[in-house]
Write a structure and sequence with these properties.
Elements (H helix, E strand, L loop, with lengths): L6 H8 L5 H11 L1 H14 L3 E4 L6 H12 L1 H11 L2 E5 L3 E5 L7 H6 L2 H6 L9
Antiparallel strand pairs: 1-3, 2-3
Helix pairs in contact: 2-3, 2-5, 3-4
Length: 127
């Protein structure tokens, strides 16, 4: 399961009455490690970008990053909340880019197949 959804939030969602702030709060409380990583890179992105490249301490934390960044709705909500574009490699390398840089060289390099290949190591094959 991606998120731990409180019963009252689930009831409101079934009625079609959940806003972005409520969803973001659910993400924050359900995926605290992923939230901390994204909060950190977003706060350091400034006018360009920032990245986090430290492998998570356990599979639990790695799973949180995977769930947060593989879900279009979660990732989109985080991007809107923090005002950044997120990029992800190797199950732990997270970057936040200022929106104005998404068409730039640094962003294109980070999300390129070449960067993904260069970022591979035997230790990360099963991440």
């Amino acid at each position: 399961m991606s998120l731990t959804v409180p019963a009252d939030l689930l009831a409101r969602a079934e009625q079609g009455a959940v806003d972005d702030a409520e969803f973001v709060e659910c993400v924050r409380t359900s995926l605290p490690y992923a939230w901390d990583v994204v909060s950190d890179v977003a706060s350091r992105a400034g006018d360009l970008f920032a990245e986090h490249a430290v492998p998570p301490p356990s599979e639990t934390e790695r799973g949180q990053l995977l769930r947060a960044l593989a879900s279009d709705s979660i990732r989109g909500a985080l991007e809107r909340h923090f005002g950044v574009k997120l990029a992800f490699q190797n199950c732990h390398r997270v970057a936040a880019f200022a929106p104005a840089t998404v068409d730039g060289d640094v962003y294109r390099e980070f999300v390129s197949p070449l960067a993904q290949i260069r970022n591979q190591t035997p230790e990360l094959v099963d991440c």
